[in-house]
Write a structure and sequence with these properties.
The protein is about 40% helix and about 25% strand. By secondary structure, it is an alpha+beta fold. It has one domain.
Length: about 90
């Protein structure tokens, strides 16, 4: 199963390399695009849940790394100022 990283810049300027066990993130986010924090969280929640389920289908268990990444994204989002934008800087296979 191909995994990937997607690099983001949070509204507070912090950069983060995020993990996904599947390329499904490419269906929800685009490099160079910016998303309202809440929208970014919803898109990554959907993508990482799908990715985790793909792992479950293939290996018989959910991907804890995808779910851990989602928890880090949700925690980081809570620290951002309202109205901020998250920028997807790049994808890395």
């Amino acid at each position: 199963m191909p995994e990937m990283r997607f690099h983001v810049r949070w509204p507070d300027g912090r950069r983060e390399a995020c993990y996904s066990p599947s390329l499904v993130v490419k269906e929800f986010l685009a490099p160079g695009e910016s998303y309202a924090v809440d929208d970014f969280v919803e898109k990554t929640r959907a993508a990482l849940n799908i990715a985790s389920e793909r792992v479950r289908e293939k290996y018989g268990f959910a991907c804890s790394s995808a779910l851990d990444q989602l928890a880090r994204i949700e925690a980081a989002a809570k620290r951002q100022v309202p109205g901020g934008q998250v920028t997807v800087e790049s994808f890395e296979p």
